[in-house]
């Protein structure tokens, strides 16, 4: 966040462009018990008590279902509660949409009814502050030394490579005229 603020407040347009790539976003994590199939018949043991990141729209739909106990009841009740099905359609960043729908009331198997330490599960998936700083530094191409000779040089662009080839061959192209 500090680096984002620094780049955002800079007068350099390159810094502002880089800041637009570092915009902090709010993330929503929920504890899930994932199923192997879409019908919800068999629980996937690899997806038990795992945090799942969901977009804001899904989070809001889940909150709406939670607050509307009259129709479906309490989703958090392990015996009388119900499952939520999250369906994703689309593949890219801009054409992906999600839908949230309540499912039939089902009893949760006794072996999954224990207390879930969601905070512990989330912390196990979060990088430490030092690791995050290293990732940010590599993203920004910053090393520990400020010596420019030790920094990796930018690769030449494909346009300059094309111009070098043209000079070597000595041929004239339509773009040269």
Sheet bearing the most strands, described?
Answer: 2 strands, antiparallel
Main sheet: strand order: 1-2
Distance between the termini: 49 Å
Radius of gyration: 26 Å
Count of DSSP H/I helices: 7
Averaged pLDDT: 75
Q: Could you spell the SSE succession in H and E letters?
A: HHEEHHEEHHH
Number of strand segments: 4
Task: Based on Cα principal axes, name the global outline.
Answer: elongated
Structural class, judged by helices and strands? alpha+beta
- Report the sheet-strand fraction: 15-25%
Poorly predicted spans: 143-177
Q: What's the helical proportion of residues?
A: 25-40%
What does this entry look like structurally?
This protein is α+β, with helices and mostly antiparallel strands and 177 residues long. It has helices at residues 2-8, 13-21, 56-67, 69-72, 118-123, 129-139, 158-169, and strands spanning 28-35, 43-54, 82-89, 97-105. The strands form 2 sheets. A two-stranded antiparallel ribbon has the order 1-2. Strands 3-4 form a two-stranded antiparallel ribbon. A hairpin with a 7-residue loop joins strand 1 (28-35) and strand 2. Helix 1 packs antiparallel against helix 2. The protein is elongated and about 60 Å long. It starts with a helix and ends in an 8-residue tail after the last helix. Residues 143-177 have low confidence and may be disordered.
């Amino acid at each position: 966040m500090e680096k984002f603020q620094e780049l955002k407040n800079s007068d350099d347009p390159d810094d502002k462009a880089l800041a637009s790539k570092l915009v902090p976003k709010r993330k929503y994590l929920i504890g899930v018990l994932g199923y192997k199939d879409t019908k919800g018949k068999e629980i996937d043991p690899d997806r038990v008590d795992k945090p799942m990141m969901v977009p804001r729209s899904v989070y809001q739909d889940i909150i709406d279902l939670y607050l509307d106990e009259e129709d479906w009841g309490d989703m958090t009740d392990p015996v009388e509660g119900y499952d939520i099905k999250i369906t994703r359609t689309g593949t890219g960043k801009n054409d992906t949409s999600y839908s949230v729908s309540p499912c039939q009331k089902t009893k949760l198997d006794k072996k999954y009814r224990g207390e879930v330490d969601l905070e512990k599960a989330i912390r196990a998936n979060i990088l430490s502050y030092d690791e995050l700083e290293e990732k940010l530094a590599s993203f920004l191409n910053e090393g520990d030394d400020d010596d420019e000779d030790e920094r990796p040089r930018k690769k030449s662009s494909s346009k300059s490579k094309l111009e070098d080839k043209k000079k070597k061959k000595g041929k004239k192209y339509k773009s040269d005229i």
